[in-house]
Amino acid sequence: MHSPKEEQGEPLKRSFSEANSDPPDWMVLDDNETAKEEDPSSSSKPKDFNPRGYQLQVYEVAKRRNIIAVLDTGVGKTMIAVMLIKDFGQAIESTESKKLIIFLAPTVHLVNQQFEYVKDHTSLEVEQYYGAKGVDEWTLDCWEKETKEHDVLVMTPQILLDALRKAFLSLEMVSLMIIDECHRATGNHPYAKIMKEFYHKSNNKPKIFGMTASPVVSKGKKRSKIMAVLTIKDQFFKENDLEAPWCVLSSNNCDGQMSELECVLDSLIYTIEDRTEMEACVPSAKESCRFFDPAQFSSLDLKAKVEASWLKIDASLSNLQSSLQTSYKDMYDKLKNLRKRLSNDHAKVLHCLDNLGLICAYEAVNICLENILDTTEESKAYTESVLQYKNFLEEVQCRIGESLPLGDKNFLNSGFDYLKAVDLGYISPKLHELLQLFQSFGETRQVLCLIFVERIITAKVIERFAKKLSCLSHFMVSYMTGSNTSVDSLAPKMQKETLESFRSGKVNLLFTTDVVEEGIHVPNCCYVIRFDLPKTVRSYVQSRGRARQNNSEFIMMLERGNVKQRNQLYDIIRSEYSMTNSAIKRDPDSDPCLLKDHTFEETNVFIVDVTGASVTADSAVSLIHKYCGKLPGDKYYTPKPNFQFTSSEGLYKCKLTLPVNAAVQTIVGPPSRNSHLAKQLVCLEACKQLHQMGALDDHLTPSIEEPSENACISKGKDSGAGAGAGTTKRKELHGTTCIQALCGSWGEKSDDAVFFAYKFDFKCNIITVVYSGFVLLIESKLADDVGNTEMDLFLIGKMVKASVSSCGQVHLNAEQMMKAKRFQEFFFNGLFGKLFVGSKSSGAPREFLLRDKTSSLWSPSHMYLLLPLEDNSTDELRIHWPGITACTLAAEFLNKNSLLGTEQSDDDGSNPSLNSTCSPVTDCKETNIIRFANSSVDANSLRNTVVLAIHTGRIYCIIEAVSDKTAESSFAETVDTVSSEFATFYEYFYKKYNIVLKHPGQPLMLLKQSHNPHNLLVNFNDE
């Protein structure tokens, strides 16, 4: 898509008009304006700002075509984005068709920051979106409301990707898409998936503006010699008395990574060649290295003891886990996760011993103990396993404590001898050097220092250690990590509060992982320390860019004599040099489509025709997990999929087993070249089948049942617990398992059979209310106390006494067996709307479930018959064979009239399979006969007649005929809706279901709905 002020050209080859070189009238240039970007966290910001020359230069190019702006951190890339937003915003206001501007940022912190910046510098309606706001559960109506009320949507890329996949949003609705930190658009990142799955397939593409300080992510593998030696790190080589290495990321490798990024983003890299103005305006940090000696203290004995304790407990948990693998899957999975957590904690302790010293290792054990799981309501076996895990940590704590005889707190007073502590292994030389750095800052409280570490546990333990040091008591210390699934992670709210405290100066020393490397703006940050070296060019450039204050310092900590660290750092520095040169030399006027022959077609994808919602093999696995997560569960049972793999002749097959309460049970996927693809493909097939069964709706979101009446009654009590309508908290779990008494072997047989019979009678406390009885026929005999019992069932406003009594054995001949099985197949599938499979939207033809062989409907583990009894029957067992025969005849009728209920018809819309012998339409008004597809019934005899609605595939009970309403009546008035596209019921059925009513003059039927199963064992009325 072109700039909003430009005319549309050829869709596959863009034609950009030359932009006016004059700045927009809303910008005011001021030569005396400082170069410093405004702080997005500031509470009061001017609506106008003063772009620099290099910003205008990039802006003009961005108006002409899609670009990736490669500029240093802190030079004002967001300001250029806002200039584009204002430009497109003017076009939005001047046109009738609503177009959106989407601003993507990879983290919640950046979404918060960019949202505030755009909101404060434009007059457009702006909103932010991320997972913690509950966006994942939004419906189409929610998104339609948001898009109507807002112009600019700032969000994480996963939110947009999910909305596109569910067809809640489309890129045709978007005029401009800004991609912050766009170097992430590689591999399986949501940025790359958005572009490949949707952008490149779109006929009306939005304009793309990408922003990054480092278009190359890694340092690469290919290296070549260059003829110049950079002097950036002279100090580094002098300190180590080493010759500078001559290896560097090659230009070819840089070009390859950049070309890949350009192809994915359909944009060309653009940077400023003349950096004079930027260097004059934007403060750059002074880079230096801080060296520490290798660790001299040996903790081999202590590590060996810790290792032995870990192996002992892990072996014990492993044995217990193996014994439960087949019988108790949930318990098996819990033990598997517990062992993984035990292994992680063991690794954390060893890492701290090697890199930080005994005191921090002791603190690491304390942190692990604080995160011990609560097993109050767990099983005895799992509780004992967690106790073993806790005993391991306490044993390790004790062993480390033996090496700290006075306790770590006694060492940390004003007389603490750091050098002696290093010799004794209490702190590592690396940690000692960091403390020396902090002390060099002096007594000022104006210091803002970011310390980047590789592991979360490192940030947490050093933060705790630093807080105990009297020499650092004038500093406020904190830590910040990402909000991943780790037990050590921070919640988004806590992250935001910590970052705000650091920005405002309430926190001086902030230990953090790479969560704040990219884009976070802290204008007063004067020191950035890389406690752990960066591993990529991106990490190096981004972390250095956090030092924003004038005369700030970027300090990297290196071990003396460590050649590996030296080469790692030098390669990254040289790679940045190659990256910058490659970016400058790129032609801004070439076509990104010609750079590489790329195809982004996704072959393994399922698309819902009605909405356009899609699921790929890659996204199918997460969708299946999400579907299972919506199924009812409790603290003892978590519904989740099970995958089993088999291999043959180098190909893999995956068998997917879903929970017993899922719409589909077992699926075997196609042969694949590896197990990962096999898992994806079987999940994709499962998604197709779940959509076909209605378990996934047309937006491919799990269909959630309406809450039961009982749940509504108890809403008042539970409303404070946050149990929303439609959530699993409003459901009650009745676990299912294989019951031996219900097993049978007669499913495949067509001859007679003998059963044990158990009669079900129901008596209501309201005498006028009468319920029909049933008989349960099974192969096995139940215990006397089970086969003869009573219980109370609690309904709304009444109670029913249910009794079960043994009636001995019952013999059914071959004909009765056939009818009984067909009754059960027809009646119970009809109750839940499952008599027809397939739909137009799923791509599978709609067919009658009982059309072909029905043996697949019968499982040996659920082999029973539940048949109706005649009303007012005495103790004698009298099965209601007329009702059973009626169901059998109805099934036969649907089989013979195969097109009834399908989406096929003749040109006139009529169903050719029905040879109706009914009277003309007018006859219906003159007689008292109601005509159905397979019979005619006197209107006075309709009450309690069971009917099947072809369009829903559900069975209903007739309450009465509505004499004053026919299919020719007004649809809108009858259904009590404000407006409708259908004038009459006749038109409704024809247009929506392609059904032509033969007798539209007949009265309409008032039906009693069938209901989802409710829990009648609990008296909700007393709660």
TrEMBL record:
<dbReference type="GO" id="GO:0046872">
    <property type="term" value="F:metal ion binding"/>
</dbReference>
<feature type="domain" description="Dicer dsRNA-binding fold">
    <location>
        <begin position="620"/>
        <end position="710"/>
    </location>
</feature>
<dbReference type="GO" id="GO:0004386">
    <property type="term" value="F:helicase activity"/>
</dbReference>
<feature type="domain" description="Helicase ATP-binding">
    <location>
        <begin position="58"/>
        <end position="233"/>
    </location>
</feature>
<feature type="domain" description="Helicase C-terminal">
    <location>
        <begin position="436"/>
        <end position="599"/>
    </location>
</feature>
<keyword id="KW-0694">RNA-binding</keyword>
<dbReference type="InterPro" id="IPR027417">
    <property type="entry name" value="P-loop_NTPase"/>
</dbReference>
<dbReference type="GO" id="GO:0005634">
    <property type="term" value="C:nucleus"/>
</dbReference>
<keyword id="KW-0067">ATP-binding</keyword>
<keyword id="KW-0378">Hydrolase</keyword>
<feature type="compositionally biased region" description="Basic and acidic residues">
    <location>
        <begin position="1"/>
        <end position="16"/>
    </location>
</feature>
<dbReference type="GO" id="GO:0005524">
    <property type="term" value="F:ATP binding"/>
</dbReference>
<dbReference type="Pfam" id="PF03368">
    <property type="entry name" value="Dicer_dimer"/>
</dbReference>
<feature type="domain" description="PAZ">
    <location>
        <begin position="928"/>
        <end position="1023"/>
    </location>
</feature>
<keyword id="KW-0255">Endonuclease</keyword>
<protein>
    <submittedName>
        <fullName>Uncharacterized protein</fullName>
    </submittedName>
</protein>
<dbReference type="Pfam" id="PF02170">
    <property type="entry name" value="PAZ"/>
</dbReference>
<comment type="similarity">
    <text>Belongs to the helicase family. Dicer subfamily.</text>
</comment>
<dbReference type="InterPro" id="IPR001650">
    <property type="entry name" value="Helicase_C-like"/>
</dbReference>
<dbReference type="InterPro" id="IPR038248">
    <property type="entry name" value="Dicer_dimer_sf"/>
</dbReference>
<dbReference type="GO" id="GO:0005737">
    <property type="term" value="C:cytoplasm"/>
</dbReference>
<keyword id="KW-0547">Nucleotide-binding</keyword>
<dbReference type="Pfam" id="PF00271">
    <property type="entry name" value="Helicase_C"/>
</dbReference>
<keyword id="KW-0460">Magnesium</keyword>
<feature type="compositionally biased region" description="Basic and acidic residues">
    <location>
        <begin position="33"/>
        <end position="50"/>
    </location>
</feature>
<keyword id="KW-0479">Metal-binding</keyword>
<dbReference type="InterPro" id="IPR011545">
    <property type="entry name" value="DEAD/DEAH_box_helicase_dom"/>
</dbReference>
<dbReference type="InterPro" id="IPR005034">
    <property type="entry name" value="Dicer_dimerisation"/>
</dbReference>
<dbReference type="InterPro" id="IPR003100">
    <property type="entry name" value="PAZ_dom"/>
</dbReference>
<keyword id="KW-0540">Nuclease</keyword>
<dbReference type="InterPro" id="IPR036085">
    <property type="entry name" value="PAZ_dom_sf"/>
</dbReference>
<dbReference type="GO" id="GO:0004525">
    <property type="term" value="F:ribonuclease III activity"/>
</dbReference>
<feature type="region of interest" description="Disordered">
    <location>
        <begin position="1"/>
        <end position="51"/>
    </location>
</feature>
<dbReference type="GO" id="GO:0030422">
    <property type="term" value="P:siRNA processing"/>
</dbReference>
<dbReference type="Pfam" id="PF00270">
    <property type="entry name" value="DEAD"/>
</dbReference>
<dbReference type="GO" id="GO:0003723">
    <property type="term" value="F:RNA binding"/>
</dbReference>
<dbReference type="InterPro" id="IPR014001">
    <property type="entry name" value="Helicase_ATP-bd"/>
</dbReference>
<keyword id="KW-0347">Helicase</keyword>
